[in-house]
Amino acid sequence: MSAELGTLGDLGDRDDRDGGVTLSIRSLRIDVVDTGHDIVDEVDLEIAAGEVLGLVGESGSGKTTVGLAVLGHARRGVRIASGTIEIGGRSVLDRSPRELRRLRGGQVSYVPQDPSTSLNPALRIRTQILEVLEHHGFGTTAADREARVLQVMEEVALPNTPDFLRRYPHQLSGGQQQRIGLAMAFACRPSVIVLDEPTTGLDVSTQAHVLTTVRDLCRAHGVAALYVTHDLAVVANLADRVAVMYAGRIVEQGTTRTIFESPQHPYTRHLTAAAPDISGTEAVVGLAGRAPAPGKRPVGCSFAPRCELATDECRESFPPVTSPAHAHQVRCFHAGGLAHLQRPAPVTLLRQGRDEVPALSIRHVDAAYTGHRVVHDVSFDVARGECVALVGESGSGKTTLSRSVGGLHREWTGEILLNGEAMARSARNRPTAQRLSIQYVFQNPYSSLHPRRTVGDSVARPLRVAGVSAAEATKAVHEMLERVSLTAAYAGRYPDQLSGGERQRVAIARALVSRPSVLVCDEVTSALDVLVQAAVVELLVGLQHDLGLSMLFVTHNLPLVRSLAQQVVVLADGRVVESGPTERVLGEPEQDYTRRLLADTPSISAASAG
Amino acid sequence: MTATTPTSTDPGSTPPVAAAPPGVLRTAWRMWRVRIGLLLLLLLAAVALGGPFVAPYGEAEFVGTPNTRDVEGTRFGTDYFGQDVLSRFLFGGRSILVLATLSTAMALVLGVTIGLVAAYNRGRLDDLLMRTMDVSLAFPQLLLALVALTTIGPKPWLIVLIVGFTTTPRIARITRGAAVPVVERDFVGAAEALGESRPRILWSELLPNVSGPLLVEANLRLTYSIGIIASLGFLGFSTRVNAADWGLMVNENRAALSVQPWGTVLPAIAIALLTIGTGLIADGLSRASAGIDRAKGDQ
Amino acid sequence: MGILKLVIRRLAFGVVTLFVVSLAVFILSQALPSDPARAVLGREATEENVAAFREKFGLDQSAVRQYTDWLGGLVSGDPGLSYSNGVPIMDFLGDRLKNSLFLMFAGSLISIPLSLAIGAYAALRRDKLFDNANSVSSLILAAMPEFVVGALLTVLLATNVWQIFPATVRVRPGEQPWSDIDGLVLPLLTLTLAVTPYVSRVVRASMIEVLESDYVEMARLKGLSERTVLWRHALPNAIGPTFQVIALNIAYMAGGVIVVEALFNYPGIGLALRDAVREVNLPVVQFLAMFISLIYVVSNLLADVGTILVTPRLRTRLS
């Protein structure tokens, strides 16, 4: 072995760190019981006391499986096959069930992804916190434990009044529920904590508060934290070090700064280039393909099929760990070989023909949802060939408004004009030509395609409704599939044979096949992994340019907006707070609300620069 | 976890030959319980439908001393009235199977329609339809059938109507339950945005996506319809006077059970195997569709 | 106070249900194009006899008047006179009501705990031997109509194979149903075998849903003992569905009892109902139909209220 080779997680001379290594994982392999396929393999990690390690990966990469293994837990049908996990020098995996129980919730605790389903609906929150303390024999008396409940509530910044503690989980907000999750995890003062995407589904402001709490608690109590997430911006702001997972293996590991500033693995390069950044000024770069699932992984490097640098060597054997710098490990034969990906500058179209009739015009629209007004007097225009981003947090009314534009929501008043013509409330009452001229792409590609209809039939539907013959429709469908970077051969496939990114391309093809003038995109990337999201954004930018499309891009993802929108409309509580050119709104916001929103959104460049 | 969908790592390459997603039926067919169930169903249906053509005697023909096991020219002896047990048995399944199938078919048509309309329209119409269904569920099927038979008598059309009508709310509930999450899915929204007509949305967007649970329910309801119609026969309300009927046969011959068990045992086992057959198929289908749903939920 | 309001609302729904059921029963049995008097007396009856019959039983009144009279009678506890002997129904059905309620009560007492135990145990031992064996046998038993189960049991345990129990129940008028304990074994066994498989499958399914939930996984990850996980985290969430299951069980009993009584000659309402239908004894049929529906409605009502009381999410929404 050359001197450069070491194991991932080998921290070298890190003895200067306080507390030393608390959690150590070596050669961990977890596989499917029935088939023996590996879910994760050769995982090596070490976390010191007081340190936060961000474990980053796309869905299916095995990051949650690793997180649960730290507690000695494997889900149904999955088992920890080999390797060692040590906490404070003691093995986790050879413990008896009784010893394992003493460990869980005491020495090592877990914060789940979805607090709304992870808190027991039948128990008061006080009971749920107190029982952890009781089972782990915290303190010496019941009074000690009662006092600790009050204390830990304060630590997670929740009220600790008896009245609040008597509540049931469903009487709390999402952010409060997640804080209860943190309180349960920190109650026994653990030495290791595993956080599994704890801020997914929370608004940015709530997320910012939860993240601050996590950071402060880990620092203050010297807890070693494994933070599992897909969100690079969160990691950049929270973690001391980052480990990047791809197809069940850790491909790169290093300090947060190293990973974001000089990533060596091609996958990490792509990942950072695909992540939208609120304070950056560049657009995102996507990557085609998807990570292979367990059982379908190649012999060599799993990333080889998508990698620009792949050679026969990569396809034949799995690369060993190399250490290009101190405390930085990579698994790649060509580490550092891929130059920094050139991030393009965002498309900046000048508002052409301002005097022309706008493609879409929303005038004094009020909308209600089951009787409650959720949109108040909203007006804005989408000029021809322009992309307007409609941005807002959940509950801002952005989806109700976009569904009203698409004719899917009927409870609205005011005027929505398409190319100067007023549209009826419901799609059914609009003339066919108008219906085909404004098309809608839905958030979730897993639900927007009819599962029992082939891709070709789904894409052809708009044309068939318009009365186009089957033969002509087929031709147009094939053309459009090519246009969205699929092939005509996809026409015969069913949605469940496609990946999420491919499905969303099909949905876009369906929307564009009738050559609409306006495209409404409702959170179209929020169900997708970051590389796929970037690829879809690139596709939309290209289509907008080539076809002269006008777009209304609805999203809660503020950083993403810069990559494709020329104008931004910020919506809060159903009212337009601020609107204007993207550069101006994101760069020099005029309203407090927008400023706060921008401040709460984690930034990659700001974090790694600071 | 373990994705069963084919993975193409390079979207530029030609995808594999198109194949329909493995349907509920195909998955179910691989289960031994479905095969056994189908075998039982086919066997009993053959007996019930073909039996009258091969019966050695007429269905109400006197052949010898009543309640005797060994009567010359008979295989299973005579029943309480001196009729050939085997012939009665071969005649006695037809009306049960035909009436049960008809009433289940009728309930399917009505129930699916009501269920889909309720699921798609939500709001007041949904409330009204489902409340009506709830009320009609507050009534044992057999009891309602007995009430209706009281003045009119056990006419075949009445039995089909009553069993059909009382089965309808059960099917409607299942259909609605399965269709509500489908209505929420975006491809229905996509169809609405294209201005597709309501019947088309019900028929081609919703129906194909509730077929799994519906197949299960149809089989389950057929099972129970057979049970109810056989029970009516057992209680003495078979459709024709002194006609052979498996349910009625059990009742007629059970007094002489210790001397001549065949008259009771044959029809009882026939009904048991028939309902076990349809029950096995229903169970297999429900496992198959649950498995498929789970695979989908993995996404 | 919210709970009281809710109980009243459910109660009102129950009353409405019964009202609708009464309309359906009346229409189905009387207002269909048929003449009850003719049906009872036969084609040969003279016009005078028919007219006398109509007058005696109020059939000469308008349909609306007949309905309101009947409904009023039901509410005040007087379901009218029997066609066959002109005696007030309650006089000769009272004992039978008691006998049937006893049979249903005893059947529920056996089958409810049994279904809960089997269902919960199968869920805990999911995909193990007990679960698989129970899955197959319950599937087979649930599919068969009650009278087939009963008839096969009679062949097996009372006549041809073994002769352990009597094939029929002998309870003479005036005697209590439990005076023939041996005779009760087969009817109760049949009811239990007819009800338990289906209900235990429902219990198993809802128990598995709870055991697979995120909060049970979380409880394990908090290091709680299996006993605490089961008793504090899993079971309280499984109680709500259990009430529904018990109601279902009782509802099944109410239907199954008709056939089981006929099969074992048990002197209860099931046998009475069959005979009344045969004799076109409308007032008896109508009364028994309403009585069985009442059992249905009341058990559902209690189950709904019980579910709400034990489910915090439902309970707290009220206040």
TrEMBL record, chain A:
Subcellular location: Cell membrane
Regions annotated as coiled coil: none
CDD domains: ABC_NikE_OppD_transporters (cd03257)
SUPFAM superfamilies the record matches: P-loop containing nucleoside triphosphate hydrolases
GO CC entries: plasma membrane
Xref: PANTHER family: DIPEPTIDE TRANSPORT ATP-BINDING PROTEIN DPPD, OLIGOPEPTIDE TRANSPORT ATP-BINDING PROTEIN APPD
Name of the molecule in the record: Unannotated protein
Native organism: freshwater metagenome
TrEMBL record, chain B:
Keywords in alphabetical order: Cell membrane, Membrane, Transmembrane, Transmembrane helix, Transport
Gene Ontology CC terms, in alphabetical order: plasma membrane
Keyword Transmembrane helix attributed: yes
Membrane-traversing stretches: 36-55, 96-121, 142-165, 222-241, 262-282
Subcellular location as annotated: Cell membrane
SUPFAM superfamilies the record matches: MetI-like
Entry's Gene Ontology BP terms: transmembrane transport
Keyword Translocase: no
Membrane topology: Multi-pass membrane protein
Annotated InterPro entries: BP-dependent_transpt_permease, MetI-like, MetI-like_sf
A family per Pfam: BPD_transp_1
Domain ABC transmembrane type-1 stretches: 93-282
UniProt protein name: Unannotated protein
Species this chain originates from: freshwater metagenome
Automatic annotation (TrEMBL), chain C:
Topology in the lipid bilayer: Multi-pass membrane protein
Residue ranges of every copy of the ABC transmembrane type-1 domain listed in the record: 97-303
Gene3D superfamilies: MetI-like
Transmembrane segments: 12-32, 101-124, 136-164, 184-203, 245-264, 284-310
Biological process, per Gene Ontology: transmembrane transport
Gene Ontology CC terms, in alphabetical order: plasma membrane
Coiled-coil residue spans: none
Predominant location category: membrane
Keywords: Cell membrane, Membrane, Transmembrane, Transmembrane helix, Transport
Annotated localization: Cell membrane
InterPro entries for the chain: BPD_transp_1_N, MetI-like, MetI-like_sf
The protein's name: Unannotated protein
Species for this entry: freshwater metagenome
